[in-house]
Amino acid sequence: CSVVLSPGRVRPRCDSNLPPAPPSPDVPKATEPRGDSDGSRRGSLCDRHCAAINNVQGDLGDMGCHLHRPRVPPAMSPPSCCQQHSDEVCESCVVKTTLTAENAVEANKLSNNYKFGFKKWKSHVTARPWEDRSEIVKELYSDLNVIRGSGGSTVTCGNVLYLLLFGWWLSLLYVLVAAMMFVTVVGAPYGWLCWDLAGYFLWPFGKVIQKVEVPKSRQVLGACDAGVGESSALLGGPVPRRWRPRCWVDARYWQCASTVVWLCLGYPALVLAHGLVCVTAWLLVVLIPVAKLSARTVARVLLLPPEQVVVRRLRMTEVPLEGEVILCCYHAINPYYYKYAVDGINVFAVNLLPLVLVTLVLGYVDSHNRLTSSPVKFTLALLSIMPLSYYIGMAIASISAQSNFAVGAVVNATFGSITELTFYITALIKGSREGNRCYAEIVKSALTGTLVGCVLFVPGLCMVIGGIRHQEQRFNSRSAGVSSALLFLSVGGVFAPTLFSKVYGKLVCGECHNVTQNPLGHYLCHNCHFDLMENNGTLYYSHVQPLVYTVSLLLPAAYLIGLFFTLKTHSHIYDIHISDCHMPGHHHSAVVHWSRWRALVILLLSTLCMSACADLATEHISPILTNSTISQYFIGVTVLAMVPELPEIVNGIQFALQNNLSLSIEIGNCIAVQVCMLQIPILVLFTIFYPTNFTLVFSDLHVYASMFSVVLMNYIFMDGKCDYFQGTVLVMVYFILLAVYFFAPSPSGC
Question: For this UniProt entry, which segments traverse the membrane (predicted)?
């Protein structure tokens, strides 16, 4: 079964004979000549344009599928005659890329990644078939109960780190618990078990814990039976080291006196210790094997009868003991656990979720800052935005992948910028209530920082990291050209009121000093700005404000036209065909991580938590603005602008590593376009119903930085290919602009 997608259309085909994959942009189609001139013209044009377009790479790295690029025999290759028709345009030569997906839902997600205005999401929204995963990923999700033939040396840096962090004190704790069990006499069997486990947890690598079944001939009647017996050679062999009551292997195990003593004295202390190890190792991510080791010990090993637990060292020439393998670990650290996911959620997002709860509790319970200070609460609130942005992004991707085009477009337009808008609106409300203009300037700095960062830093960083693995990367210059044109239009529209005020406003300075002691000499002035409120604000209310409203209406209209252009009339720019990568008849049904209703609930809850965290961030940012020696411009363009975009940056890096730079560039461009065409008009609309200090007049520094960034970005992306050097240029320019903001004085009035 195959699924072929073009933007806005899904056509499943379930034939036994699948048609061949569409031709790749790397190989021109063989054309049947309708005449000498027509055939040579079409061949030359397709040869020229297809060689230049060679762009979009498949999003296939995590799926184990391959881009279908059929080879065309030399005899079928059309002749090249570009020299004869160098000025013509080949309209039939379009970008066609065939990607592979496991099911229709995943195919929808991949198709949405190439649609303008849709959130680009790298992670899977459905559960991947186990057989399609690589051996590295399979090892991440496997239980620690597999015995290998030869795992190499167990003396590694990671294992030594385990010994220093956990091994020595866990072993000592087991020795103390063993001594306590021996003192109770009745708990002596558990004392022997703890003694064996003390040696195991000191260095568990290359050792195995197994559950064995004890033959009835080796069992003795214990305290749970009426009489007491013993095992001898006549009854089945030598007496084992541990005293084994018979009730340990039947339903009366939990009624034994030794079990009660163990559960009351020894087991709770070990549960607390292993719980501490489990939480610490899980938070460190790379030590998740140690967390699994501790969790499985508490859940299985410590609740088994001691006679059924065998701890032994593996030898390469030794046949494993018969019985169930409970634990077998070779390495404490696995660096690939950054890929680990719980129900489709990345492990880092899972680990940061408790931070959101801590932030909300501290922020609203400790309102008088008795437990923590305002800078600490501001930092926690800002860090909490990162996992919430991840959950919002995954919820949007899940809903869009399981819905039709209209629902996906509405969800992306409604919640795509909810993270940034929540913070901006809460900051403007607080500034309006306090009568403080600094909050409006911080919002403008954050808007500019998001624009500059997404135009320079995001694509530049993706180019650098992707260029380390791939010498040269190509991308779809036509689709990037659409985003670039919209970006030029949006930047021009956003800064039009600013340029208008510079031309017609009156320059007013607060302090001026004559440096030459001559009335006609030079004056040194401070706190100069263009006054728009002269003559009772005639210039602003009669000219600037109507211009702001006009621009705020035109920019969303231009955004809708861009959507209609790229998704309807000229959808061939993003002509992506997605089909099943499995053999015919081998179909996998979609098992989604989040259903539509679950994704919707998570989306709404994340949005509410985001609003609360944004409120706490704006509530506790005042001491930082007043007491910090760093410019408010710098705080806005760095921390407040880029922290909410970290999940998008990670997505862009993952796409670049898969040689899919087109999506990495589109991530930055789409965010920048949404800032200018959606977020700013929404803020202007908000100020109509709730008056604030926000006006669409930016400082000169914001105007110059934004325009220079857009021009440089378009120059770099002109030829449709790039390498790590060009990415380094973009990143260096971004850091130069940050240095300018760092040394710039704070806005007037702050």
Answer: 160-183, 260-288, 345-366, 378-399, 405-425, 446-468, 480-500, 547-567, 597-617, 663-689, 701-718, 724-744
- Tell me the C-alpha distance between 632 and 628, whole Å: 9
pLDDT digits (tens, 9 = 90+) for 328-359: 888 899 999 988 988 889 999 999 999 999 99
> Helical H runs in 234-346?
257-261, 267-283, 288-299
Q: How many CB atoms lie within 10 A of CB 61?
A: 16
Q: Which two tokens stand for residue 583?
A: 């053999």
Q: Cα(408)–Cα(418) distance, rounded to whole angstroms?
A: 15
C-alpha to C-alpha distance for 183 and 194, rounded to whole angstroms: 13
Helix (H, G, I), strand (E, B), or coil: what is residue 573? helix
User: Is residue 704 scored above 50 in pLDDT?
Assistant: yes
Q: 537-541: long-range contacts (C-beta < 8 A, 24 or more apart)?
A: 539/501, 539/504, 539/505, 540/695
3-state DSSP helix/strand/coil % of the chain, to nearest 5: 60, 10, 35
DSSP string, 185-228: STTHHHHHHHHHHHHHHHS-BTEEEEE-PPPGGG-B--TTSSS-
CB 128 within 8 Å of CB 593: no
Per DSSP, the chain holds a count of helices (H) and strands (E) of 28, 15
| Distance between CA atoms of residues 338 and 202, nearest Å | 26
Contact assessment for residue 78 and residue 101, using Cβ atoms and an 8 Å cutoff: no
- Helix axis angle for 661-674 and 646-657, nearest 10°, is 160
Kindly give, in sequence order, each residue whose CB lies less than 8 Å from that of residue 182, ignoring residues fewer than 6 positions away: 188, 191
- C-alpha distances (whole Å) from 142 to each of 125, 128, 328, 370, 426 are 21, 15, 11, 46, 45
In three-state form (DSSP H/G/I as H, E/B as E, the rest C), the secondary structure along 24-53 is: CCCCCCCCCCCCHHHHHHHHHHHHHHHHHH
Q: Average pLDDT for residues 716-727, to the nearest whole number?
A: 82
User: With left for phi above 0 and alpha for psi between -120 and 50, is residue 412 left, alpha or beta?
Assistant: alpha
Pick the closest to residue 57 from 469, 488, 397 (CA basis): 469
207 forms bridges with which residues in the sheet? 313, 329
State mean pLDDT over 390-410. 86
- Tokens describing residue 356: 């959101």
Distance CA 705, CA 699 (A): 10
Which amino acid, residue 381? A
Q: How far apart are CA 49 and CA 93, in angstroms?
A: 7
- Encode pLDDT of 582-621 as tens digits: 444 445 567 888 888 999 999 999 999 988 998 888 888 8
Map residue 576 onto helix, strand or coil: strand
- Distance CA(606)–CA(284), nearest Å, equals 24
Instruction: Indicate the pTM of the whole model.
Output: 0.75
Which of 396, 336, 346 minimizes the C-alpha distance to 121? 396
Instruction: Write out pLDDT tens, residues 159-209.
Output: 999 999 999 999 999 999 999 999 998 989 999 999 999 999 999 998 889
Residues forming beta bridges with residue 523, ordered by sequence position:
514
Please give the Cα distance from 540 to 106 (Å, whole number).
Answer: 51
Helices (H), 321-470: 347-365, 374-401, 405-415, 418-434, 438-452, 458-469
Strand order in the sheet with 309-313: 309-313, 207-211, 324-329
Distances in Å between the Cα of 83 and the Cα atoms of 38, 86, 357 are 15, 6, 66
Q: Report yes or no: 134 and 141 within 8 Å, Cβ to Cβ.
A: no
